[in-house]
Amino acid sequence: MVDQRSSRVLPFFFFFFLFYFFVLLGPTFEQQLSSQLEFRALFELRSSLGLRGKEWPRKTDPCLWNGVVCEDGRVVSLNISGFRRTRLGRQNPQFSVNGLANLTLLRSFNASNFLLPGTIPEWFGHRLNSLRVLDLRSCSIYGSLPYSLGNLTNLTGLYLSRNNLSGSIPSSFTNLKNLSFFDLSSNFLSGSIPLEIGTLSRLQALNLSSNNLSGSIPAILGDLGALADLDLSFNSFSGSVPPELRGLRSLKKLLIGNNLLSGSLPDNLFSNPSSLETIVLNRNSFNGGIPSVVWSAPGLRFLDVSGNNFTGQLPNSSLSDNATVDRVLNMSGNLFYGGLSTVLRQFGSVDLSGNYFQGGVPDYVVVNASLDSNCLQNLRNQRNLSDCESFYAERGQNFDAPSPAPSPAAERETSKKSNRRTIILAAVLGGVGLILLLAILLVLVLVCLRKRGDTTQRGVGVGPVPGSSSPPPAATINYSSVGDAFTYLQLLQATSDFSDANLIKNGHSGDLFRGVLESGIPVVIKRIDLRSVKKEAHLVELDFFGKASHTRFVPFLGHCLENDNEKFLVYKYMPNGDLSSSLYKKNNTEDDSLQSLDWITRLKIALGAAEGLSYLHHECNPPLVHRDVQASSILLDDKFEVRLGSLSEFCTQEGDIHQSKITRLLRLPQSSEQGASGTPTAVCAYDVYCFGKVLLELVTGKLGISASSDAQAKEWLDQTVPYISIYDKELVTKIVDPSLIVDDDLLEEVWAMAVVARSCLNPKPSRRPPMRYILKALENPLKVVREENSGSARLRTTSSRGSWNAALFGSWRSSSDITVIPAVSSTKVEGGSGLKHSGTTGSQGSGQNGGGGEHSSSYRRHSREIFPEPSSVQDVERPDQD
Ligand SMILES: *[C@@H]1O[C@H](CO)[C@@H](O)[C@H](O)[C@H]1NC(C)=O
Ligand SMILES: *[C@@H]1O[C@H](CO)[C@@H](O)[C@H](O)[C@H]1NC(C)=O
Ligand SMILES: *[C@@H]1O[C@H](CO)[C@@H](O)[C@H](O)[C@H]1NC(C)=O
Ligand SMILES: *[C@@H]1O[C@H](CO)[C@@H](O)[C@H](O)[C@H]1NC(C)=O
Ligand SMILES: *[C@@H]1O[C@H](CO)[C@@H](O)[C@H](O)[C@H]1NC(C)=O
Ligand SMILES: *[C@@H]1O[C@H](CO)[C@@H](O)[C@H](O)[C@H]1NC(C)=O
Ligand SMILES: *[C@@H]1O[C@H](CO)[C@@H](O)[C@H](O)[C@H]1NC(C)=O
Ligand SMILES: *[C@@H]1O[C@H](CO)[C@@H](O)[C@H](O)[C@H]1NC(C)=O
Ligand SMILES: *[C@@H]1O[C@H](CO)[C@@H](O)[C@H](O)[C@H]1NC(C)=O
Ligand SMILES: *[C@@H]1O[C@H](CO)[C@@H](O)[C@H](O)[C@H]1NC(C)=O
């Protein structure tokens, strides 16, 4: 019927429109609907939905109808939002939109607030392929969501809120990769959030509020870096808030109130506080504190944490004072306590009722603030005193009872009681503390004695040292300031699920994988399996990067601590690997000497490593000991600049003088030179020894020496060191790496490095030079050998200590004690090093005390008390072989 009539009136329409468009509208000609099929489809829609002639007049071209948009004569957008139906249509409204099926270029369909009682047809997913926006809000739709909707991959906005939809969210929805706005709120959906939702990387708004959804909040949501609005409120979600949500770097609105959520919120939950606008956590069972950044989030307008078990004190304001009147704060019904603070200045509406705040009400708190049911002074409707007192007593916090007490007698009674309680508590704590102290002392003594007992030929220690490598308790490390937090998923992606192909090596502190971050940055990821590695190894390293920052250490990018048994540390990738592999490469191609690490590079590497260690030993306070100095710890960037790695062993030197004295008191005779076994000792001299082996490795090309302390390596050292003599340059050629091409000038440098190495390898830790002298020596290698040679005749006499080797072999006598306390010596050494001013004057060394020997009798006496006076000639001429 429709077809017949329309074909009869068409010619008339045609001429009318020709006139209309050409004469009156001209350029809008292309608006005219050109597809017969679509023409028919629209008329079918018009009758099936009962649309009125007012909006869609029968005698007008459909492209001019209200809410119809055409392009090139085809319908691309339909908006019937808020339309009213004809009387007939109102009587029996249906979800009958079959006409849509032939509008194949339709990009947008908006029927919000238009009654469509019925189910979404399955064919939507097969026919409306071009659809980008589907808005069916408040249409009284029921039934479940068709699985086929997942086919509409062009969709960017899907709005189905305020209907009666039931069933679960089909997993096919996760195919909608272009989806930015996803609103299923206010329905009767059940089940849990499909995990694959984490792949909808363009999602900006996800609204699932007011449904019957359950299960936990998937950690994978944290992958949605573009997500600004997340609303999961009024459901039955349970469990805790996953720390991965930290990945939501664009988060503006987080609404998860009125669920069954529990646990505490990770303090670093909000990685980008500057974007925050709305946080609603109300009516859950959260405990713990509120992430501190919310108080300083500049754009926060609405914060509702009411109806939980949150606790903690109000911080003071860190924002500027321009009170933002429209800000809302609701903390009611929690366990907050302490005094009201200036942070309340930032809010124009404040509800603190039902907490345990105490003290007076400052005048910056807004007049209409709700403060009922607290422990505040001079205010009505507060908790009774005993509630308040027992609350504060349970938490060991001070409660200042209001001074004008309503009932003085009862008041005194309770305060006396609490006084007594305080005294008892103090006594008990004091006693426990004393016992703990004694226990610690005992353990210390036992550890020392045991180390004394089993000495091995590691031969590098200074004697017993209490194991002090354990990191500070996790709580004192502020992870957020130490690199970025990566999600496990990010790391999985970066390393192709930690595939074997990406494994670099199984290091002693963890497995190293290469990978590429999403941003394209190549990284190395250390996987630390806490079941096989010393507990908290990762914390040691985090602690290190929190303390030390210097270009000589491997750039640390971040960490991932979310898994219980596996922790991950992420570093920048070093293109040239480590020194051991560079030397190995060289040795593999021995015939091709061009590829061998040339001497200039080797010297540069030695210098770089010395710089890093010197920083640790002399610029950190207290001094830090690396404890894993070896070729494989010396990483090399693209320019062969040294970046020290392998920092999981580091610890602070036993710099405490008292402790050293205790250590020395306990030291048995003859044992001081034997060294400790087991864990490397925590003294800088240990690093120096290991560095000596690295230097020797550079000189000789002998692989693996620095990595090993076994008998074979020791034997090799014992055989090699005698070839290093300050008096005989030619002798060193017998041990120099045969693949090194060195002329006579360079040989002098090689010789110098060997001499430095030998001084580092002194079996007596106390006679090894401090790192800063080693650095000076490597900076001026020729001075090491030339000036020494010119004065070599005098070396055999005791007055020779004024020459360079006083710094390397001699000045330790005055400085070895001092190196423990950098403040005494480090600055003075800068200007007048023993090397620069070497010669007969002998005025160098550690500042006032002089390193020369002659001028430092008092210091030497002090030294001798602790270490036996060495015979320097012997030391230089042959290594101790005890
Ligand atoms: C949709 O149509 C309604 C009613 O005509 C109108 O108020 C509204 O602005 C339209 N919306 C859009 C996005 O075109
Ligand atoms: C869509 O067009 C086809 C012809 O191509 C027609 O057979 C069918 O009835 C039309 N469907 C609707 C709902 O108009
Ligand atoms: C649909 O129309 C309503 C009413 O005009 C409007 O508020 C809404 O923004 C439209 N939906 C979309 C996705 O544009
Ligand atoms: C997306 O829309 C375009 C036309 O707008 C269409 O050609 C294409 O097939 C659609 N993609 C899918 C996956 O349907
Ligand atoms: C759409 O989804 C259905 C499942 O609902 C599937 O069978 C079909 O192959 C998909 N593709 C198209 C183009 O309809
Ligand atoms: C998603 O959108 C981009 C442009 O924003 C488009 O190039 C791409 O084809 C879309 N993907 C699909 C599956 O439609
Ligand atoms: C989510 O939807 C509900 C109801 O449909 C609405 O009140 C709420 O404002 C929406 N949330 C966000 C963040 O837009
Ligand atoms: C707070 O903790 C108490 C005691 O554990 C519990 O009884 C109460 O239900 C909790 N309140 C909320 C809102 O979770
Ligand atoms: C604060 O939250 C509580 C409980 O969620 C509610 O009863 C109260 O009305 C809220 N206060 C304000 C000022 O909105
Ligand atoms: C806030 O500042 C006041 C006064 O400076 C101080 O007494 C109070 O302890 C501070 N509160 C906190 C939580 O730091």
TrEMBL record:
Keyword Kinase in record: yes
Q: Which InterPro entries match?
A: Kinase-like_dom_sf, Leu-rich_rpt_typical-subtyp, LRR_dom_sf, LRR_N_plant-typ, LRR_R13L4/SHOC2-like, PRK1-6/SRF4-like, Prot_kinase_dom, Ser-Thr/Tyr_kinase_cat_dom
Cite the residue spans of the region called Disordered.
Answer: 397-416, 827-882
Q: Does the record's keyword annotation contain Ribonucleoprotein?
A: no
Residue intervals passing through the bilayer: 12-29, 423-449
Give the source's domain of life in one word.
Answer: Eukaryota
Keywords noted in UniProt:
Glycoprotein, Kinase, Leucine-rich repeat, Membrane, Receptor, Repeat, Signal, Transferase, Transmembrane, Transmembrane helix
Q: Which residues form a coiled coil?
A: none
What SUPFAM superfamilies does the entry give? L domain-like (SSF52058), Protein kinase-like (PK-like) (SSF56112)
> Short name of one Pfam family for this protein?
LRR_14
> What compartments host this protein?
Membrane
Q: Which residues form the Protein kinase domain?
A: 498-783
Principal subcellular localisation of the protein: membrane
GO CC annotations? membrane
Q: Per the record, where are the segments of Gly residues compositional bias? A: 842-854
| GO terms, molecular function | ATP binding; protein serine/threonine kinase activity
Quote the protein name from its UniProt record.
Putative LRR receptor-like serine/threonine-protein kinase
Task: List the source organism.
Answer: Morus notabilis
Q: Lineage in the entry?
A: Eukaryota, Viridiplantae, Streptophyta, Embryophyta, Tracheophyta
